[in-house]
Amino acid sequence: MRSLKNHLSLIIALLTILLTLQIFLSVEKAITAYETDLSENYSIIVISDQNISAKQLSQISPAIINSEEISAQQIVQRLQKEMKSKMIDLHKIILPHFYRIHLDHFPTPAEVDTLSQKLSSQPYIKRVENFSHNHSTIYKLLLLFKWVTMILAVSIFAVTTLLIIKEMRLWQFQHHDRMNIMALFGAPVWLRSAVLFRLAIVDAIIATLLASAIFITANHYRWAQDQLSAINVHIELFNPLSDTLLLLGVALSLSVLLASLIVMGHKEEV
Predict the structure, then answer these.
(1) Structural domains in the chain?
(2) Interval 67-100: pLDDT, tens
(3) What is the dihedral sign for C-alpha 14, 15, 19, 20?
(4) CB 44 within 8 A of CB 250
(5) Crossing angle for the helix pair 194-221 and 242-264, nearest 10 degrees?
(6) Which of 61, 140, 243, 249 lies most in the core, judged by the most C-beta atoms within 10 Å?
(7) Kindly report the CA angle at 242 between 238 and 243, in degrees rounded to 5?
(8) pTM of the entire structure?
(9) Are the CB atoms for 124 and 97 separated by under 8 Å?
């Protein structure tokens, strides 16, 4: 009964670490995908009195991947409701040229300011609109969410690791006499601690299977995907093959490492 309790405690501790790790990785995937979507939709508006080629704009900064001219037809159509038709051609001539600039990544507020200064310094650019307030708010929220997720994951990992060490030490105390007797007969360290390593490996495999089953079930019922779809993020949060192997590798490495540390710190009584 006590052995079963030790198994359950170690499995739950490992399961908590694996769930936290996979949730952290999934959040990172979602944030990266959301940043990609933002970078594709975020743009800087440039106003000029003359035509500007895409090559001219791309030479200003390597972050500019493409640019497009915004047709003034929509502006003219709005004016058409209030002015006579004979004045429309005049407005087509005097209206400035509007260009939408797209970047290769979602920039930081500092990068936005630097790029805006570079654009404004060009003699052929009359005005730059970078929507800095909205951009800065979104960027700070993303950054805050990243830090909160990371701090939470590290905290859970640290506390759960201490719990695993405690459980393994309890096992060590329970088998203290047996290990000392085997040491007296000259048994090597790995043989004296074989049960501990077997406990660590078996529980790591069980915890990995449980964690994979939880995430596969969540994927099947699309609990998270439906929420992410609302913000136009479409990603695979859990890959049954690669992510399961990753979790198994982490669980085995952590269990064997902690078991090794406990074994090396064990002193036989003579």
Answers:
(1) 2-37+138-264 (no CATH), 43-130 (3.30.70.3040)
(2) 888 776 665 565 555 555 555 554 555 667 788 8
(3) negative
(4) no
(5) 150
(6) 243
(7) 45
(8) 0.71
(9) no
